[in-house]
Amino acid sequence: MNSKNKKIVLYHTWTTKTVVFMIFMLFLSGGMFAQDKKQVSGTVYDNTGNVLPGASVIEVGTKNATTTDFDGKFSLTVAVGSSIEISFIGSTTQKIQILSGTKSPIDVRLQNDGYMLAEVQVVAVGYGTQKKSDLTGAISTVKGDDLVKGTISSTEQVLQGKVAGLNVIRPSGDPAAGSTLRLRGGTSLTASNSPLIVVDGIAGVDINIVQPSDIKSVDVLKDASATAIYGSRGANGVIIITTKSGTKGVSVTYSGLSSIGYVADNLDLLSANQWRGYVRQTGNKDAIDYGGNTNWQKELEQTAISQSHTLSINSGKADSGFRTSLSYLNNEGVIKTTGLERLSGNVSAYQYLGDNKDVKFDMGLFANVDKWHPLDYRIFERSYNLNPTIPVYDANGDFTSVSGTIYENPVEILTNRTVDNERHRLLGYFKTEVKFLNDFLAVANISYEHNAVKGSTYKPSYAVMEGRTEDGYAQKTYAEYANAQGEIYVNYNKIIDKHNIGALAGYSYLENIYEGFGAQRSGFVTDAFSYNNLGAGYNYRLGDVYSYKGKSNLVSFYARANYSYDSKYLLTATVRRDGSSRFGENNKWGTFPSASLAWKISSEDFMSSSKGWLDNLKLRVGYGVTGNQDGIGEYKSLSILGVGNDSYYDPVTGTWSLAYSPKQNPNPDLKWESTKQINVGIDFTLFNRISGSFEYYSKKTDDLLYTYEVPQPPYLVGTMLANVGEMSNKGVELTLNADIIKGDKFSWNANLTLGHNIQKIEKLSNTTYETDVIYSGSLHGLSGMSGQYSQIIAEGYPVGTFWGFKSAGLDADGKMLYYNAANDKVLGDALVDDDKRDLGNVQPDLTLGIGMNFTYGNFDLGVSGYGMFGQKALNATNMMLNDPNRLPAFNVPDDFLNSGITSSPKYSSYWIEDASFFRLQTLSLGYTLPLKYKSSKLRVYLMGENLFVLTSYKGVDPEIGLNAQDGVDQTGLAAPGIDKYNNYPRPTTISVGLNFTLNN
Prior knowledge:
Layout: H1 3-35, E1 37-45, E2 56-59, E3 65-67, E4 73-79, E5 83-87, E6 94-97, E7 106-109, H2 114-120, E8 122-124, E9 129-131, E10 139-143, E11 166-169, E12 180-183, E13 196-199, E14 202-203, E15 215-221, H3 224-227, E16 238-243, E17 249-263, H4 272-282, H5 296-300, E18 304-316, E19 320-332, E20 339-353, E21 359-372, H6 378-385, H7 410-415, E22 418-436, E23 440-459, H8 466-469, E24 473-496, E25 499-522, E26 545-565, E27 569-580, E28 589-600, E29 614-628, E30 640-650, E31 655-664, E32 673-686, E33 690-709, E34 719-742, E35 746-763, E36 774-778, E37 789-793, E38 801-804, E39 806-810, E40 816-819, E41 825-827, E42 837-841, E43 846-856, E44 859-869, E45 872-875, H9 876-881, E46 912-914, E47 917-930, E48 937-951, E49 978-979, E50 987-999
Parallel strand pairs: 1-7, 13-16, 45-49
Antiparallel strand pairs: 1-4, 2-3, 2-5, 5-6, 8-9, 10-15, 11-12, 13-14, 15-16, 17-18, 17-50, 18-19, 19-20, 20-21, 21-22, 22-23, 23-24, 24-25, 25-26, 26-27, 27-28, 28-29, 29-32, 30-31, 32-33, 33-34, 34-35, 35-43, 36-37, 37-38, 38-42, 39-40, 40-41, 43-44, 44-47, 45-46, 47-48, 48-50
């Protein structure tokens, strides 16, 4: 064999051995790898402990993957020594190495990724939704879990301190009292200043149709570029509420709360022993000691026991689902006989049709019934007036009665009369969505809202005041309104390479009908009928019976266009055209356009070095025009006739009849109030922990409505409603959210909102309608103050400006001194009107909301508070009580005896106080018991509400309404910032509650 052949043989032999060896090793290694596989299973949770269906679980470096089921569970076979990666949209990704000793099941808790959540969060923008990252306008979102919790009787309360620039003021502790909403300052003198409320796409509804437990999220549209889509109703901002609906799976949830409320603070008035000490010290011979020891404020109060219960059922699958809930609230007031009882229910359902779910039907029905007993607020003034030695009851067990003006027994007023009110609310809607031609979605929506209130009052013949003077008094009232709406709109969305195009066009029709009637009668020979037989009263007077009815229509066309390039440059433009029956003949239609731009600076290549500490930076600029038509009541542009004081003789019947005469001048030029607003905003995310936004806005309202005096002739009536004035609001807002600590065991989250607004009346007159100043803040009803006003509305000043004499303190004799125009100190009788000056205003310089949430294992701790700073308030109650002429018949504050005051009250800066405050809103501590049955859970908690208030204000509470004392009047002309015997105390409440969710 030659060497060449030998090499071939050797090569062949070596090659064969090699191949055999490699095949053997391959099988061996395959056997080894087969033995090193391991099946792992577990459950994926979010940072709050809720399971995450649809989370992705993948073996790193392979295509071996799965997703979690509805209960958040997964199972996957992987190689020992490899790692699995668990991810979910809006959460940080987590890796876990699988070793031979790794035990199943594995519990995985993913933390929220603030930046990613912002990118994918869906926000309601009116007639549709957008990802938060694609927004170009100023919109704030509050999730249902982040809303204010506790004993809530007015749904507005859930937003208190949660949105920068939104003031939620509840001026009374009365459970039946409403709240005042102000977003970026008021825009009107005579119309509503409250934002438009939209519930599940239905605009203009009563916010209290929705109960807090049914709210999924709240989106607050602030600037005109966002609200212009609502045209003549969007000037005061828009609050869009999205309610909970059916979701996949079956679950039953119960929430219950029981609470105890008590009055934490009263006015410090003289006790009976202090009063007697004063009498002994002064030797006052006119003093009468009635032998009692009565704290009249305490006699009106009680410990309030309240409860609320909500049961909801959810059932859903891929193509259909429903949710229903039933709620009961019994919120007892801390003043006897007061409270609010509410029964609420709602049901919502959806159904898809077609293999591709091209058709969807949505329906919702909300209803509730309120019952309450309105309070006669005169009891507070009487409780401050009465001598503390007067007993509540006399020797015969009857209410003690001492003659005197405004000296009636307040407990008798509270007890010896029946006032029953009842309100019914109903909202129903049906919505159809149809997808067609791939990129189009057509929506048709019809809705109906009905709200009715009936009142019944009876003051028996033995009751003080009206009962005795009228020999019994009965009244029945009824008022209702109904809104029927129909809307149809089409959405278009198309992505072409880096271009994202969206468009919307729609039509809306709204019909509002309201009506009511009332009757009263006095002179009853028996009190047995109460308010149920008005015909039994023998005393009939003109005006004892009335009725009314009105109707208005609003027709609208609207459109919106959205465009983005490369998800970095975004544009939104909207326009709405409204036609209203309320407008004058020459201004039936109004057009409201807007445009906004946004630039995602952080997505630019030159920002790549900032990744890791600056995850998101977006600049927004917007401008728009919106309107406010609520100041134009039905038929305000027309000439109206009414019954006057004149009579005429009818020769046909031979009787005298009341004559009809003009009561209102026609104004064919009457139109909406128009607000133009520019907004500049910056959104940012830092270190994937701190996110926030900063806003600057400037808005100017033109064509303010006010009733002006006009000459007669040529006008038949001496006044006319006209569009004349101008008002401006400028301000800044800051919103911050921070995940200070994000751990598996412990987490700490904080949020902060700040708002600053400057308001100014720019114009009140023109060449046709003129007024130098509007006087407001009436002091009528206060002793010696008849016909006096405490505030002005004038050019160069904000609404609610106190105008009067500046106090210079007291002289040596205890008499009030004042500064005149030359800044000389003079007595009150030397003052003239020219000595009056600006004494401050009710507008706050700064509003603040703050909240913090802590979790440790299954424990959670939450704290929230809010405050207003820089606003002034007139403590008219204190002004009236610090009168040296009150003693000994009337009571006075404790500190009056040492005040040295010897002169009668006179309105001045002496009684105007700094009403700044910070209120600890809620403090809660909870524990969640994880139940093994399909991720069901039970949470129990303890909560305190209104635990303390930090303030220097001397009255009962510094949070004084911006409106009339009843909290109903939403205009700027009533009595903003005046504490005038409207001191229903705000209770401190301690609650125990539980939340239970059963999943199936």
